[in-house]
Design goal:
Blueprint: H1 3-13, H2 19-27, H3 31-38, E1 49-52, H4 62-77, H5 81-86, E2 88-92, H6 98-111, E3 116-118, H7 125-135, E4 139-143, E5 152-159, H8 167-178, H9 191-197, E6 200-202, H10 205-216, E7 232-235, H11 242-252, E8 257-259, H12 285-294, E9 298-302, E10 309-314, E11 320-322, H13 325-343, E12 350-355, H14 361-368, E13 372-376, H15 380-383, H16 387-392, E14 396-402, E15 406-408, H17 418-434, H18 439-450, E16 452-456, E17 459-461, H19 464-480, E18 485-486, E19 489-496, E20 510-514, E21 518-524, E22 530-539, H20 542-561
Parallel strand pairs: 2-3, 2-4, 3-6, 7-8, 7-9, 12-13, 12-14
Antiparallel strand pairs: 1-5, 4-5, 9-10, 10-11, 14-15, 16-22, 17-22, 18-19, 19-20, 20-21, 21-22
Helix pairs in contact: 1-3, 4-6, 4-8, 10-11, 13-14, 13-17, 13-18
């Protein structure tokens, strides 16, 4: 069925009183907009659904959410009565329609005889991941678009291991979803009726407490080893992080930390920040203003669903310097391993996991402590998905992370967790301050000890049908014209993961190693309309590393941008 046929079907099926019907009327004479909204069904990948909110098969709305949920309900039913009784736990972020979509999903599961658990309000993504294992549910659903702009929403699916669904499970769900007619096949119970009947259970505050207790159990040092008067700033970027982060900081005894008031409460329009991605330095504007007023050494931010976490550090000149996810990872890998070594609790069989596009400096740090660093594909379904495998191999999981400011500090929470990452970074800052150092000093010491690395992760945003096609052409061009030299350095190794490589499953990723201690990777994003690049080098000084990395980046981006 082509885009116009799908558009006409929706116009026939929707009631004129349906708000989405009005959207269709507004675009009926705009073939380009019809094509964008209906040229495909919003794809259900291994991260679930993600797209702009609005009418259309390629948009997030009650029909695409209903179709996905009914399909997942059928998938759970196929696993038998026990799977249905164990049920599904559902969470949501502060975005437009997130609560409505979560209640719709709960009503659909309930109508299909599947027990549903919901939170009374928005909660961090990592709390959902924890709750799946805590409650022993068969599945979990999170209505969130993570750090995307305000006009997006999304739908993440999890399985009983607490991870986002594996490719195998996602494929099984997708087959069921494809068989659902969103206008005739979706069974749904009114939310209030489901709660009254007990088929939908609203979780109480004791479950929030259980999550925080686990987060706080990850502490490396006790309060008497910390300078708890260290001035800190935190912003939840108008998302789900404010309440749990505040409770955690209070429980840990921090006395001089400050929250950005303008960004404390949920705001689906993210009015004070625009693009709510803590990776973007612009997201720290209000934090920097508050930091200068309070003398803060460390600025911290979580994204709207509080799974991503990023920081800025004050340098010796008093400037706030944004750290990329790799650099924060260096600090956390070293802090965790140093703390265990000093306490005599560092296991002989310790293991950490990083993605294939994350800096190898963390591998060098881990190996210096006798800990093995494993690799995975990007995404925490892959990073945390290695935990059961590592345990079977006799390893003790200590930490996992990827460069896109995601960190998983314990095996019980099998997704990235901005709350626990924030606790560990704040604790590290307080620990080193008691020794007369800042985290900025520690980072420089790590470069001195393990090598002067540079890291850069640019991307090119290409939206819509034309953008997706151009990204495909870019990847095809690079594959067919593999460079032999980049910025004066010889390419010595190329790995194309399209059919898998060693113990890494198949993925659309290209990785290149150069003869000057540099490497880079290219891949299309799986959840956003962009092609992503990763550049790393180690040189004799940080300045030299930055210059070499910049030259490689310039050459590669020029090569790719030349593809029309």
């Amino acid at each position: 069925m082509d885009a116009m046929s799908r558009f006409n079907l929706w116009r026939q099926k929707l009631s004129p009183q349906d708000p989405l019907f009005a959207e269709l009327e507004d675009i009926k004479d705009n073939p380009g907009e019809i094509e964008e909204r209906f040229y495909q069904e919003l794809s259900f990948g291994t991260a679930g659904l993600r797209g702009k909110i609005g009418a259309g098969t390629n948009r997030m709305n009650v029909y695409t959410v209903g179709k996905a949920t009914q399909g997942i309900a059928r998938y759970i039913i196929s696993h038998g009565r026990s799977a249905m009784d164990r049920g599904v736990v559902i969470a949501h972020d502060p975005r437009h329609f997130s609560k409505e979509f979560s209640q719709l999903a709960a009503g659909i599961f309930a109508a299909n005889g599947i027990q549903a658990y919901v939170f009374p309000d928005l909660r961090p993504t990592p709390e959902l991941a924890f709750m799946i294992r805590k409650l022993g549910t068969t599945s979990g659903i999170n209505i969130t678009a993570s750090h995307n702009p305000k006009d997006y929403n999304g739908y993440k699916a999890y399985w009983s291991d607490g991870c986002q669904v594996s490719s195998e499970i996602a494929d099984g769900m997708y087959r069921q979803i494809q068989a659902v007619d969103p206008f005739t096949d979706v069974q749904c119970m009114p939310f209030d009726e489901g709660v009254k009947s007990g088929k939908i259970v609203v979780l109480g505050p004791e479950y929030d407490r259980a999550y925080l207790d686990l987060v706080e159990s990850m502490a490396i040092h006790d309060w008497n080893e910390l300078d708890l008067d260290i001035p800190l700033v935190y912003t939840p970027l108008n998302g789900a992080g404010a309440v749990p982060f505040t409770e955690m900081m209070k429980d840990r005894g921090f006395r001089s930390w400050h929250i950005v008031e303008e960004q404390k409460d949920p705001d689906p329009d993210f009015t004070t920040v625009g693009y709510p991605n803590p990776e973007a330095p612009a997201a720290f504007r209000l934090s920097e203003e508050l930091g200068r007023r309070t003398g803060a050494e460390l600025l911290m931010a979580t994204d709207p669903d509080a799974d991503r976490f990023a920081i800025e550090l004050r340098d010796d000149e008093g400037n706030y310097i944004p750290l990329n996810g790799n650099q924060t990872g260096y600090l956390l890998v070293n802090y965790i391993l140093e703390g265990h070594r000093d306490a005599g609790t560092l296991p002989a069989n310790g293991a950490m996991v990083k993605s294939i596009v994350t800096s190898t400096m963390s591998t060098i740090i881990a190996e210096a402590y006798g800990v093995r660093m494993f690799e995975s594909l990007t995404g925490f379904k892959n990073i945390c998905g290695r935990i059961p495998e590592l345990e079977k191999m006799g390893y003790q999981y200590l930490f996992g992370y990827e460069e896109s400011v995601g960190y998983a500090a314990c095996p019980e929470i099998r997704d990235k967790d901005g709350i626990s990452a924030g606790m560990l970074v704040a604790e590290a800052a307080a620990y080193y301050r008691r020794q007369g150092k800042t985290l900025w000093h520690v980072l420089q010491e790590l470069y001195e000890k393990y090598g002067f690395f540079a890291e850069d992760e640019p991307n090119i945003i290409l939206e819509g049908i034309a953008g997706a096609e151009r990204i495909r052409r870019m990847m095809k061009h690079v594959r067919e014209n593999l460079p032999k030299e980049v910025a004066g350095a010889r390419v010595v190794k190329v790995v194309d993961y399209i059919n898998g490589y060693e113990d890494i499953p198949a993925s659309n990723v290209l990785r290149f190693w150069l003869d000057n201690d540099s490497w880079f990777a290219i891949r299309p994003s799986g959840t956003e309309p962009k092609i992503k690049f990763y550049f790393y080098t180690r040189q004799a000084s940080r300045q030299k590393a930055l210059a070499v990395n910049e030259a490689i980046k310039t050459a590669v981006l020029a090569m790719v941008n030349a593809v029309a």
